[in-house]
Recover the amino acids of this structure.
């Protein structure tokens, strides 16, 4: 890539060898420069400014006693409680339980969604017969399935895993299905002209084409799965971060509730952010060329 | 040792690797929006081994359809297309094709795109890499092996597409308006490149084009086609050694004759 840049700047290449700068280089160069050096710190600071304002308003609200302290605990108290929960190891323990659950559920459900999505994408017959049922089945919210699942599976680990898996299934299934269907048909000609067999087609054409959709779907699955997990942990669990929050509510310790809310938000954001990075890696190429 | 790459398919071929094409009474109809369009009506054409032949004609004359039939991407409703005496029924690596839009896979580098054409060819990985490097050098893309298609200009992409088509050593190269989307400067430059490749490979090339000058510059024969239904109107033999001078009298005259013929049926249509 660097030699493309060098050759261009020298201006010695014949017309057709000079890459089209406007269509690909400019936005990338800008974002690269933005990410480089001190700009990163600026981005982080800008991202933190809104939370800082919120904490400030929160402090003022507590100080002015706009709400009873039993309802709205002081930020300092929440901070203190958070530190204590962390120091005692309880926070880490509950988080570990929750993360293990969400990973297992999202992997199982996501994988199933991936397989079914690919199958529906490749076979119109299968889609005609099964897709409406499958979609309708999964479009009933997890909360709606909960009573049935609870009676069927009890309130043990299986319930949580199944519920998260169910939540994670749809985004991946739909994403992958639609990516396969919207694949430009012109690559069919290429695959045929190059005499690619079914396996080579899947590996070199279908999978790379749907990889961005898989990454996007997985990201969506994880964030939905995370929310579903907290919900089910609040309703039926004896461990996990959602359980900790529920415990705080029942014992009327709103500081615990607030601390766990913040942790849930932060962990959810971190998971999402990590997968966003992964997603960007899968879309370095583009269907649009500098024609 | 390059045996496998030389002859990807155990077809009985003359040592010269030159193919001839025999198109006989070919017709093709497409269903479009409930109605039907006859793309080709009773077209016959013979392409000699090692010949460069161009198909020109207004839109709808079926020239691209004819090319797809030779490639095996479509099959005729009636009539036959035979290459080396064998009926064409499906695509083959022995018949390379270059599309107007380069159709490189956007997620693969130039190198990987060319290598993909050797996926179904027997041979050691090492051998294939050597062949890919050779082709990239041949089309003048050295230094851009790792570039992704969206980082290439139109001309460079088309060079890569040509390398991909030539890598499995086809006995025939089909070009569907390969330079149609390029600016005139790049176009002129790549026409000379095509000529060089044709002389280097010694195989027959069939090119669909809108550009009469391009056709006259490159071809042994120019086939002028009529539209609705698509059929062969007239075939021009182009004399003169290559590279041809575009300002030469004979060149200008035959170009004008073809243009006149094309304008004639534009008025008729």
């Amino acid at each position: 890539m660097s030699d493309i840049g060098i050759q261009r700047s020298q201006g010695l290449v014949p017309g057709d060898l000079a890459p089209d700068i406007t269509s690909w280089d400019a936005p990338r160069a800008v974002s690269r420069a933005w990410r480089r050096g001190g700009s990163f710190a600026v981005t982080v600071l800008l991202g933190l400014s809104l939370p800082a304002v919120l904490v400030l308003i929160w402090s003022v609200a507590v100080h002015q006693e706009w709400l009873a302290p039993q309802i709205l605990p002081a930020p300092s108290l929440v901070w203190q409680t958070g530190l204590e929960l962390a120091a005692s190891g309880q926070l880490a323990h509950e988080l570990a339980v929750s993360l293990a659950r969400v990973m297992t559920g999202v992997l199982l459900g996501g994988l199933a969604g991936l397989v079914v999505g690919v199958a529906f994408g490749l076979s119109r017959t299968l889609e005609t017969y099964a897709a409406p049922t499958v979609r309708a089945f999964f479009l009933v919210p997890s909360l709606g399935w909960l009573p049935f699942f609870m009676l069927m599976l009890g309130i043990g680990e299986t319930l949580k895993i199944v519920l998260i898996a169910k939540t994670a299934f749809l985004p991946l299934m739909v994403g992958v299905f639609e990516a396969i269907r919207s694949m430009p048909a012109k690559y069919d000609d290429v695959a045929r002209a190059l005499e690619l067999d079914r396996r080579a087609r899947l590996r070199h054409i279908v999978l790379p084409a749907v990889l961005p959709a898989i990454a996007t779907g997985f990201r969506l699955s994880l964030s939905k799965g995370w929310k579903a997990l907290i919900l089910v942990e609040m309703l039926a669990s004896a461990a996990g971060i959602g359980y900790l929050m529920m415990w705080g509510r029942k014992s009327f310790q709103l500081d615990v509730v607030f601390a766990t809310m913040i942790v849930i938000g932060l962990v959810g954001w971190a998971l999402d952010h990590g997968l966003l990075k992964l997603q960007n890696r899968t879309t370095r190429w583009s269907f649009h060329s500098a024609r | 040792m390059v045996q496998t790459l030389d002859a990807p398919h155990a077809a009985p071929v003359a040592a010269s690797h030159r193919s001839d094409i025999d198109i006989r009474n070919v017709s093709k109809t497409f269903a479009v929006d409930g109605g039907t369009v006859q793309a080709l009506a009773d077209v016959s054409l013979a392409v000699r081994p090692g010949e460069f032949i161009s198909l020109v004609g207004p839109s709808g004359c079926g020239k691209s359809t004819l090319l797809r039939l030779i490639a095996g991407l479509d099959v005729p409703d009636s009539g036959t297309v035979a290459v080396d005496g064998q009926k064409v029924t499906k695509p083959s690596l022995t018949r390379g094709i270059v599309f107007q839009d380069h159709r490189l896979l956007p997620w693969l580098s130039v190198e990987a795109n060319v290598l993909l054409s050797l996926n179904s060819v027997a041979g050691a990985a090492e051998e294939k890499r050597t062949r890919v490097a050779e082709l990239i050098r041949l089309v003048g893309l050295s230094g851009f092996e790792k570039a992704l298609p969206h980082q290439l200009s139109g001309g460079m992409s088309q060079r890569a597409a040509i390398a991909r088509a030539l890598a499995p050593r086809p006995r025939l190269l089909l070009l569907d308006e390969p330079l149609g989307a390029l600016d005139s400067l790049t176009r002129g430059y790549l026409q000379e490149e095509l000529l060089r490749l044709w002389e280097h490979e010694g195989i027959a090339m069939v090119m669909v084009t809108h550009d009469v000058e391009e056709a006259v510059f490159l071809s042994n024969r120019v086939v002028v086609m009529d539209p609705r239904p698509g059929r062969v109107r007239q075939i021009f033999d182009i004399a003169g050694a290559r590279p041809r001078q575009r300002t030469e009298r004979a060149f200008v005259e035959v170009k004008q004759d073809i243009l006149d013929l094309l304008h004639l049926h534009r008025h008729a249509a």
Observations:
- Chain B is about 35% helix and 25% strand.
- Strands of chain B lie at 21-32, 35-47, 52-56, 78-83, 86-87, 95-98, 172-176, 204-208, 221-226, 231-237.
- Chain B has one domain: 3-105+171-268.
- Chain B touches chain A through 45 residues (CB under 8 Å).
